[in-house]
Amino acid sequence: MVHYSLADKITKSLGDGESYTQSEISSKIGNINRAILTGYLRSMADLGKIKSKNVGKAKIYSLKKRGDKDGKKD
Fold first, then answer.
1. Residue 51 and residue 72 in contact, taking contact as beta carbons nearer than 8 Å
2. Which CATH class is domain 6-63?
3. Cα separation of 9 and 6, whole Å?
4. C-alpha angle with apex 46: 5 to 36, nearest 5 degrees?
5. What is the pTM of this model?
6. N or C end of the chain: smaller count of CB under 10 Å?
7. pLDDT at 1 exceeding the cut of 80
8. Residues 17-70: pLDDT tens digits?
9. Between the CA atoms of 37, 45, 2 and 24, what dihedral angle is there, to the nearest 10 degrees?
10. How do the domains of the chain map onto residue ranges?
11. Are strands 58-63 and 20-21 parallel, antiparallel or unpaired?
12. Based on the number of CB atoms within 10 Å of its own CB, is 1 exposed (0-12), middle (13-18) or buried (19 or more)?
């Protein structure tokens, strides 16, 4: 049995090149606690592994592409 960390699951869920909201990511990886997911998404963006963008009231997340300056856009 293979065990994946939550960071690996987030990266895998964003692997198709699309952008997703926190609730969409939660649904894709198996309905995890919102506060825990928020912490992981913020830290991954701070580390430059993913990028985030504010769209209205929502924040969307996607994998960082080569050449992106940092994880946070807005």
1. yes
2. mainly alpha
3. 5
4. 45
5. 0.80
6. N
7. no
8. 899 999 999 999 987 898 999 999 999 999 999 999 999 999 999 998 766 665
9. 50
10. 6-63
11. antiparallel
12. exposed
